[in-house]
UniProtKB/TrEMBL annotation:
<dbReference type="InterPro" id="IPR006076">
    <property type="entry name" value="FAD-dep_OxRdtase"/>
</dbReference>
<dbReference type="InterPro" id="IPR038299">
    <property type="entry name" value="DAO_C_sf"/>
</dbReference>
<dbReference type="Pfam" id="PF01266">
    <property type="entry name" value="DAO"/>
</dbReference>
<dbReference type="InterPro" id="IPR000447">
    <property type="entry name" value="G3P_DH_FAD-dep"/>
</dbReference>
<keyword id="KW-0285">Flavoprotein</keyword>
<dbReference type="Pfam" id="PF16901">
    <property type="entry name" value="DAO_C"/>
</dbReference>
<keyword id="KW-0274">FAD</keyword>
<keyword id="KW-0560">Oxidoreductase</keyword>
<feature type="domain" description="Alpha-glycerophosphate oxidase C-terminal">
    <location>
        <begin position="388"/>
        <end position="483"/>
    </location>
</feature>
<feature type="domain" description="FAD dependent oxidoreductase">
    <location>
        <begin position="12"/>
        <end position="332"/>
    </location>
</feature>
<dbReference type="InterPro" id="IPR031656">
    <property type="entry name" value="DAO_C"/>
</dbReference>
<dbReference type="GO" id="GO:0004368">
    <property type="term" value="F:glycerol-3-phosphate dehydrogenase (quinone) activity"/>
</dbReference>
<comment type="similarity">
    <text>Belongs to the FAD-dependent glycerol-3-phosphate dehydrogenase family.</text>
</comment>
<dbReference type="InterPro" id="IPR036188">
    <property type="entry name" value="FAD/NAD-bd_sf"/>
</dbReference>
<protein>
    <recommendedName>
        <fullName>Glycerol-3-phosphate dehydrogenase</fullName>
        <ecNumber>1.1.5.3</ecNumber>
    </recommendedName>
</protein>
Amino acid sequence: MTNPNETLKCYDVAVIGGGINGVGIANDAAGRGLSVFLCEKDDLASHTSSASSKLIHGGLRYLEHKEFRLVREALAEREVLLAKAPHIIRPMRFIMPHRPHLRPAWLIRTGLFFYDHLGKREKLAGSNNVTFQPVDSPLNKDITRGFEYSDCAVDDSRLVILNAMQAREQGAQIVTQTRCISAQRMDSVWILDMENQQGRFQIQAKVLVNAAGPWVAQFIREDLKLQSPYGIRLIQGSHIIVPKLYEGDKAFIMQNDDQRIVFAIPYLEKYTMIGTTDREYAGEPNKVEISADETAYLLDVSNDHFKTQLSEMDIVSTFSGVRPLCDDESDNPAAVTRDYTLALSQENVSDAPLLSVFGGKLTTYRKLAESAMEHLQKFFPEIKQPWTEQALLPGAENLRSVDELITEIENKIKGVDTGTAQRWAHAYGSRVWSFLKHTGSVHELGQHFGHGLYAQEVDYLVDAEWAVDSDDILKRRSKLYLEFSLDEILLLDQYLAELHERRLQQDVA
């Protein structure tokens, strides 16, 4: 623990939680001239923010629940985010097969009309009707017509990483594998007790932002010893990954008898991702796993729609996350609002404020962060104006097009395969030259761990992107986890352990 006689560093804002909302707020605050500290108890994006359906979307089904404000905001944000990070976000067309017994055609057309016109739409194409030919269609022969519209696909965990990088470049202090074990108000500031593998330390902050996601209410009750202003509903969402179900780059949005919808989305070139589910979750968010009922549910929905029939044997991988939604007392988990609620609390006017984030969705993280700054502006009257709407995320600078970048990589790096060049371009954008700038051949990239992952990239991820272990690199930085064998993972972990030891020795020296 910090020496009691030592002067603690005092930040304007301390953020608890390294998911999309936490890094979004940290980034916005740092860019407005505030000093910012963010801690994450695990890896960035290691929970809810990497367990999404990988979409930047307006939320077509939210229209049925009359969430017009949320849908309008999300639709506008699609275009903003597409411009901010075109390397990790791309337009995608979605096909909704028509099932007349579930929703009448007029209702869907009405919803799609609103979807086309509620938010500003410049880059994305509008909706239209489609018909399916029995021979060519991947769908069951009884599905003959449907509807098509636009949304966007995103590498969700990289969206978090890029915001954290930009926050750091704006001066924020971002620390992972570090938990806030308690915090208390004292003399108009927060005193935060932090803990990581190196030990314990303290910091001060004028404002505390609780963006702990599934742990938001628990953090208030157990670590702050305060009463949470809102309840939280933990809603589990699970996905299965199977070999590619159909050719082409379009996604399908499948209606089910329970009035829910399930996506089938092209994933990592070779696979189809099917999800998500909606069920109440009462366990520890760290331990969420797909259930047998969820697996059966997703397989049944897919088999009701596609000619290719799936069984559990076809599942390559699964992932599950817990969405921390503000409790609106809805009886139906699918109908619980996906909108966000920000709660600002002070027991007395002189108390250091606490801002807690309840709910939210990936698509609207930037607007949530702007809203958070509106809440905090009265405590920092000198802060700068909103800035994130036009600011490119790392890797989008000087990026003419991802295709041109892929060609440039292939021309400059001898021996690189097209798949690796594509992965690098989409993951890093123009920042790919951070670890390739002095390289002319793959043979200069150091140890090859397999599947286009070389030591030079691994070193960069450790030094510049907070990666610590193989999960950080394979699941959240590169998405190579489906390709690596256990032996290859062990080899990577061994290299990372040795690299960590070398870094420690350099720090001591």
